[in-house]
């Protein structure tokens, strides 16, 4: 199922000269083993809770593994992007939490533009007058 949802893994297998696909090096996936476990669960249809604490890591890892709509519909990049824009970055607390979680994901978090989105969201929230 990972192959069906990840263009990166699909490409690794197609370009491999090895015939034993039981060992693919995925040690560079952002977020580590816990995030990879969530990605794998997503690929197998298990509901994965996306939160302000894990959305940056999930998004970085999904982008790294190329889990996009081009690969299959309703893939993880679109889910994490939707959560970022519709939930996490709509509040000051959410934007700051996501930004803090990016520290261990650099430089990937910068490359996929999460850091800039967070900074922009914080800037907008701080400069907006509070409506009563």
UniProtKB/TrEMBL annotation:
InterPro entries tied to this protein: BTB/POZ_dom, NPH3/RPT2-like, SKP1/BTB/POZ_sf
BTB domain segment(s): 2-76
Superkingdom as given in the UniProt entry: Eukaryota
Recorded coiled-coil stretches: none
SUPFAM superfamilies assigned: POZ domain (SSF54695)
Protein name per UniProt: Transcription regulator TRAF family
Functional pathway: Protein modification; protein ubiquitination
